[in-house]
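ARCHIVE CARD
CATEGORY: sequence design from structure
SOURCE FIELD: tokenized fold
FIELD CONTENT:
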């Protein structure tokens, strides 16, 4: 099975390239806000790497670029894409910091996609996605872009043990996408003004699930 066409949109660039892609679509003030989030994300994810070996910051940066390439010109959503893992995976920002610097709306998007454990260390995946589904468009866009990129970058492993671990992770991601992520795309597709984008995410995520089932 061929790699889904959306892979062509999931490529990064250097800082100058990022600025060149972002700047035409935002006011000067929003561009400055986005670049502040860019720097915070880069710092927060310093010395962190993905399973593929690339630096972690490439992930939120590509999410922001993907959304802009798809015509999402809402600065709060782009900022949330850049910072969506910073609270969960680093110590440089807390909820109040995000609210103070980027506003309550942007903070809501980030907190809705942040996986926070319960006091006993457990995590309720069903409740996590239920809260997300009950939220608004910005949250759905960040999570849909996040899952699309994650599905596109799952590694294969280099030996028998790592290949088995990677296969298990692929199967888990596919099952979770079918159960929880595709309903977000469906809801987006049923939202006025986002019909085409919602269908695009639904179709591309479905293709990635099919691809990862055999690759």
């Amino acid at each position: 099975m061929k790699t889904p066409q959306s892979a062509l949109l999931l490529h990064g660039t250097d800082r100058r390239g990022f600025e060149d892609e972002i700047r035409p679509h935002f006011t000067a003030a929003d561009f400055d806000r986005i670049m502040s989030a860019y720097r915070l994300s880069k710092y927060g994810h310093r010395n962190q790497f993905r399973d593929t070996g690339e630096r972690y910051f490439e992930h939120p940066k590509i999410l922001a670029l993907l959304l802009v390439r798809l015509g999402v010109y809402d600065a709060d959503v782009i900022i949330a894409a850049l910072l969506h893992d910073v609270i969960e995976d680093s110590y440089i920002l807390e909820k109040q910091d995000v609210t103070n610097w980027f506003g309550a709306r942007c903070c809501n998007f980030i907190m809705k996609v942040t996986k926070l454990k319960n006091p006993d260390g457990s995590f309720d995946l069903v409740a996590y996605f239920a809260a997300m589904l009950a939220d608004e468009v910005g949250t759905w866009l960040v999570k849909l872009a996040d899952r699309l990129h994650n599905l596109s970058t799952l590694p294969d492993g280099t030996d028998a043990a790592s290949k088995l671990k990677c296969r298990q992770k692929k199967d888990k991601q596919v099952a979770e996408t079918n159960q929880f992520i595709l309903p977000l795309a469906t809801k987006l597709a049923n939202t006025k003004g986002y019909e085409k984008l919602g269908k695009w995410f639904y179709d591309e995520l479905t293709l990635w699930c099919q691809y990862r089932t055999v690759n």
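CARD ANNOTATION: The CA atoms of residues 140 and 184 lie 6 Å apart. The chain is about 65% helix and 0% strand.
SHELF: design records, drawer C
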